[in-house]
Amino acid sequence: MNEHRARIPGQRLPSAPEARHGERPAPAPLFTRTDPALGEFALRPVDPAADAALLHGWVTHPKAVFWLMQDCDLAAVEKESARIAADPFHDAFLGLHNGTPAFLMERYDPAHRELVGIHTAEPGDVGMHFLTAPTTAPVHGFTRAVLTTVMEMLFADPATRRVVVEPDTRNTAVHALNEAVGFEVLRTVSLPAKDARLSTCTRDQFLATRGDHR
Fold this sequence. Notes:
Layout: E1 31-35, E2 39-45, H1 52-59, H2 74-85, E3 90-97, E4 100-108, E5 125-132, H3 142-155, E6 162-165, H4 172-180, E7 184-191, E8 194-202, H5 203-209
Parallel strand pairs: 5-6
Antiparallel strand pairs: 1-2, 2-3, 3-4, 4-5, 6-8, 7-8
Helix pairs in contact: 1-2
């Protein structure tokens, strides 16, 4: 991603769900993927005001400790979402599973955000964070399906050549998931709020884990 938000070309945009009287309709999905085992996954832009309460419950849950928003109140979550929505180098998307909100994804330009001065961004580099919603009934393979959906959305833009992530060194679960979809650890880096494993995944590395080589 260079000076502008990454494009998602070739996607048919379904109509937004019909809103109740007096409510603003939710943004339409920008990307959809059908998982053969788990059904439909989709991503739409976050609506900072309408999604604030939902996201507040997710990011302050103990499971989301690595999201670094544990102590945020509702207003702070809405403010952060609004800040991202106004940033030309950062985007946030709400992920849906069979139509129900189930995960959050952020996309950023590492030449301008998060990794400035730490990672030398190359043309086509796109930074990414993702978070699954807390649940009392985990489904086997769900988080990997979410990450696969996220990666497919990012690589749907032909300008995206490599995805860059910087998970906390203590987040062993996400390290295993990243490896499973093709990420390669470059090195450990010190960021303001954490020590992180700087990792990258090229299009070919991702496709190799899908059994597809182009």
